[in-house]
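C-alpha cells incoming
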C-alpha cells in the first residue's frame, strides 16, 4: 500500500522473516534467495510441520516441496530447526530427513513430552571440551537446590562429572555432597542404586 518493495527491504534490513510455502515459488522469493547479501548472512532456518512435506507435498499442495529446494540455497553452517508433532519414526521420517538433506550423524532429534507440558528443553554449548574433565557449566546445579539428573554418554564421563561436582561442593551453599551427589549406573550394586533412587525420590535434602 505504501509502494515499497518488501522483498528488497528484507534482503538488507530485517532480522527475522516469516514466509509461507506458496511464496517460495514466486520470482521475488527466488531473487531474494539468490541475493548474496541475504543468503550469506542467514544464520538459522526454521521449518514448522515438516510432516506435511510428504503428505501434502506429494498430493494436493506441491508448493510444500519448495521448502526442500530452498534449504539447498544456504551455506552448510546455517542451523536448521525443524518442528513436527506427528512425524512417526520409520520410512516417513527417513523420507523427510532425506528431502531436507538431514543425515543421521548431522542432526539432533529432541523429543518434548506432551504429558509434562512444563518440561523445557534447553540446549547450551559447553565452554570446555569433555577431555578437560572440567565442567564449570554445571556448577549452577549445585546452587540451584533442585533435584537434577545428568545423563552422560559413558560411565567414564559420568565419573568425571561426579568427581568435579564433588570437589566443588564447597563453593555451593547448603549442599551436602554425601547426600546430594550420587552416581547411578549398571556398575553400581543394586543396593547402591536403590539407595540413590530413594534419596532422589523421597529425601528433600537430596
Amino acid at each position: 500500500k505504501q509502494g515499497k518493495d518488501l522483498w528488497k527491504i528484507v534482503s538488507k534490513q530485517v532480522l527475522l522473516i516469516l514466509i509461507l510455502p506458496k511464496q517460495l515459488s514466486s520470482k521475488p522469493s527466488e531473487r531474494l534467495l539468490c541475493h548474496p547479501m541475504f543468503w550469506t548472512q542467514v544464520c538459522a532456518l526454521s521449518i514448522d510441520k515438516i510432516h506435511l512435506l510428504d503428505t501434502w507435498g506429494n498430493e494436493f499442495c506441491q508448493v510444500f516441496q519448495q521448502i526442500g529446494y530452498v534449504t539447498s540455497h544456504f551455506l552448510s553452517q546455517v542451523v536448521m530447526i525443524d518442528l513436527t508433532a506427528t512425524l512417526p519414526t520409520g520410512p516417513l521420517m527417513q523420507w523427510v530427513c532425506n528431502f531436507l538433506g538431514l543425515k543421521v550423524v548431522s542432526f539432533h532429534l529432541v523429543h518434548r513430552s506432551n504429558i509434562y507440558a512444563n518440561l523445557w528443553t534447553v540446549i547450551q554449548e559447553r565452554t570446555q571440551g569433555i577431555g578437560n574433565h572440567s565442567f564449570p557449566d554445571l556448577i549452577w546445579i549445585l546452587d540451584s537446590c533442585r533435584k537434577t539428573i545428568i545423563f552422560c554418554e559413558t560411565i567414564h564421563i559420568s565419573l568425571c562429572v561426579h568427581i568435579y561436582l564433588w570437589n566443588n561442593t564447597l563453593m555451593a551453599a547448603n549442599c551436602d555432597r554425601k547426600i546430594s551427589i550420587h552416581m547411578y549406573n549398571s556398575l553400581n550394586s543394586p543396593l547402591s542404586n536403590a539407595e540413590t533412587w530413594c534419596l532422589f525420590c523421597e529425601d528433600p535434602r537430596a
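note: The longest strand covers residues 44-47.
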